[in-house]
Amino acid sequence: MINQFEINLPMRFEARKGPLYESTLGILTGLFLYSLFSDKFSWTFSLLILIPIALMAFNYFSTYYIIKNKLLIYRSGLIKGSIPIDEIREVEPDKTLWAGLKPALASKGILIHYNKFDEIYVAPINNAVFISELSKLNPNIKIKSQS
To answer: What does the alpha-carbon distance between residue 21 and residue 45 come to, in Å, rounded to a whole number?
Structure first.
């Protein structure tokens, strides 16, 4: 069997979608549809509510993570970047980051510490598989257990 890392194929991890994000998007979409068919139709209200729906939908369908060429590549809407996997010092699974760099759509994801003081929050569908793949490329990553 051919090892995926020997031929250097990228691994794509889809982002987990949280219930808060999905319900907010659903409520806004419902309000938009109601406004379209309401007797008191307003272009202003419809356009104002369509803007956050469009931004949220863009994030919803464009959030993912790729491990390729010893890089962790992340994308969430307009937020995109990469981190050398060799620079990752520690990962904290099942954490939630409320402020900071967060290309994620759900809680209980992974807080990744890299460089000296940098951190990023990601929320792949399966935290354990994601951490396992990172650890294969950088066995020095410390996996912080929940306490």
So the answer is: 21
